[in-house]
Amino acid sequence: MDWQTTADAVPARIVSEARALTMAGRAPATGAWREGDPVGGRRFVTIGDLPLESGETLPGVRIAYEQWGTLSPAADNAILVLHALTGDSHVIGPAGPGHPSAGWWPGVVGPGLPIDTDRYFVVAPNVLGGCQGSTGPASLAPDGAEWGARLPFLTIRDQVRAQLAFAEQLGIRRFAAVVGGSMGAMQVLEWAIMAPDAVGRIAVLAAPAAATADQVALNSVQIEAVRSDPAFRGGDYYDVPDGEGPTRGLALARRMAMLNYRTAAELNSRFERSWQSGLDPLGGGGRFAVESYLDFHGNKFTRRFDANSYVVLTQAMNSHDVGRGRGGVAPALDRITAASLVLGIDSDRYFSLDGQVEIAAVLRRSVHGPEPVVLHSEYGHDAFLIEHAAVGEALRALLAS
Ligand SMILES: CC(=O)SCCNC(=O)CCNC(=O)[C@H](O)C(C)(C)COP(=O)(O)OP(=O)(O)OC[C@H]1O[C@@H](n2cnc3c(N)ncnc32)[C@H](O)[C@@H]1OP(=O)(O)O
Ligand SMILES: N[C@@H](CCO)C(=O)O
């Protein structure tokens, strides 16, 4: 397929992005892209100019993706997997060149697993606005400099438009299923509304039909944490020396996000009041184990994610409202004809269960009836990434429908 480029032929712009990402104040880390590195198993499709909901056009859009399994001659066995806010196309497989982390859904996707790559052709794009190969703030604008904060505002619908063009390039007119969690599930809902003929089944995991005021608020303080870092420089930091990028603000945003993604019960039972370094908590020095955990996740995150992308994607989540311009949420959901799985997590304090209750009540072809599947878990929002057996069982039921 001649529209694909592979690790053997790395487009110049990708090398530039690799440079941008490593220049963004990241400590060199295993798996981080560097100039000259191969791009691993990642593939790329250029979909060209993309008209946006704002009326602007984003030129020369490229989508990075990975694939597993074999597309049938009739192209009727494809499953589209859409990642969450900080995920990427690397759904399964080890970390390595081009892959900052190991795959995020082991146990769910693979040979013999619920999304069975012996049977299905599984394809996973990196989201538009992301920082793992698809066009985003670290990509070059037509003037030859990185877009940075100049990247036009992107909505969830814009991301889905890009995915539709991407699917067309792959020659896939209809997916057997479109599956995603959190931000990925926002896109799943839009797929089912914007392109009903292109979607056989949908799995909506842990996402609302519209971002609520509470969710926007939680997201907004994270955006502000990034922007208020002096090293953010209004989003223009790609040429600063290594180590001087906006890592402090980005790490703080990740720490805050982790508190949305996990639960009080988990943190309390896992860390208790344990204190690291052996010092007395009242004596100064050292830190609580839970602080160390948040520091670890904040710091690790800055080695694999671009601050501008974090802002762009978080704003896209805030834009999410399936009812916008469609007469409201219920009429919009009522347009969905695909067989559906709606799954919520009882301990999710970010995208709480009532959001999935609202969706499941309207969808007509839900495999579990008018109620969402409720995953009982202590892990909160992140349970859709951790509870592989329960999530897999629900997906099997959907795919068998
Ligand atoms: C699997 C991936 O990392 S995928 C990477 C791409 N990321 C995504 O796609 C986003 C989705 N993934 C995520 O959000 C997360 O990675 C999750 C939800 C999958 C992780 O969930 P969990 O498996 O429960 O990991 P958890 O939150 O317990 O973190 C484990 C890490 O914290 C570290 N840790 C635990 N306690 C502490 C502590 N007190 N102090 C410092 N570090 C600590 C562990 O050593 C471990 O480190 P490692 O990641 O190097 O192995
Ligand atoms: N842990 C997930 C949660 C967002 O849904 C992520 O970082 O992408």
Q: What would you call the quaternary organization? A: single chain
How many individual helices? 12
Arrangement of strands in the largest sheet: 1-2-6-3-7-8-11-12
Structure summary, number of beta strands: 12
Q: Main beta sheet: strand number and arrangement?
A: 8 strands, mixed
Tally of discrete structural domains: 1
**Strand-residue fraction?**
5-15%
Shape: globular
Distinct small molecules: acetyl coenzyme *A, L-homoserine
Average pLDDT over all residues: 89
The N- to C-terminal Cα distance equals 32 Å
Computed over alpha carbons, the radius of gyration is 20 Å
CATH architecture: 3-Layer(aba) Sandwich
Give the SSE layout:
Blueprint (H helix, E strand, L loop, with lengths): L11 H12 L19 E9 L5 E12 L9 E5 L26 E2 L4 E2 L4 E5 L30 H15 L6 E5 L1 H12 L6 E5 L7 H15 L19 H15 L2 H8 L3 E2 L10 E2 H14 L4 H13 L9 H5 L5 E7 L7 H10 L10 E3 L7 H4 L1 H13 L1
Parallel strand pairs: 3-6, 3-7, 4-5, 7-8, 8-11, 11-12
Antiparallel strand pairs: 1-2, 2-6, 9-10
Helix pairs in contact: 2-3, 4-5, 4-8, 5-7
The structure holds acetyl coenzyme *A and L-homoserine (HSE).
The site of acetyl coenzyme *A (ACO) has 13 residues, from helix 7 and helix 11.
